[in-house]
């Protein structure tokens, strides 16, 4: 199903999954999706996009920046990012179950 080298496929920056571009969501760490010049967009698969949307925007930007989005090798970014998300999830849990 997945064809390597197919330009319509993108890699999710959060989980590293390769997904068809049509099923991915663009993520622009600069927050401006309409200025497309000289930019390489990053992509999130739908599950990750949904997960990130549940994070406060402010936290997301910080999270991605701290994880080194665009500045470190992808494997390093993914490792840092998942650690950060785990930490977020832990702090969620400490607030107790939602009623
Ligand atoms: Zn993903």
Chemical compounds bound to the protein: zinc ion
- How many β-strand runs? 4
Proportion of helical residues: 40-55%
Radius of gyration: 15 Å
Poorly predicted regions: none
Strand content: 5-15%
In what order do the strands lie side by side in the largest sheet? 1-2
Q: Give the overall shape.
A: globular
* Overall number of domains: 1
User: Structural class of the secondary elements?
Assistant: alpha+beta
Average of the residue pLDDT scores? 76
Main β sheet profile:
2 strands, antiparallel
Count of DSSP H/I helices: 3
Oligomer: single chain
- Compressed to H and E, one letter per element, the order equals EEEEHHH
- How far apart, in Å, are the first and last alpha carbons? 42 Å
Question: Would you kindly provide a written description of the structure presented here, covering whatever features stand out?
Answer:
Helix 2 (57-67) packs antiparallel against helix 3 (74-94). A two-stranded antiparallel ribbon has the order 1-2. The longest helix is centred in the C-terminal third of the chain and has 21 residues, at 74-94. The chain has one domain (9-94). It contains three helices and four strands; from the N terminus they run E-E-E-E-H-H-H. The protein has helices at 46-53, 57-67, 74-94, and strands at 9-11, 18-20, 24-27, 42-45. The chain is an alpha+beta fold and 99 residues long. It is globular and about 40 Å long. Residues 12, 14-15, 17, 44-45, 47-48 line the site of zinc ion (ZN).
């Amino acid at each position: 199903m997945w064809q390597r080298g197919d330009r319509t496929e993108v890699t999710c920056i959060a989980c590293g999954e390769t997904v068809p571009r049509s099923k991915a969501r663009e993520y622009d760490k600069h927050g401006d999706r309409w200025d497309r010049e000289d930019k390489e967009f990053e992509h999130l698969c739908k599950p990750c996009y949904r997960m990130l949307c549940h994070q406060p925007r402010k936290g997301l930007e910080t999270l991605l920046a701290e994880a080194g989005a665009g500045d470190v090798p992808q494997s390093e970014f993914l490792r840092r990012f998942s650690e950060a998300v785990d930490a977020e999830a832990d702090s969620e849990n400490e607030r107790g179950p939602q009623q």
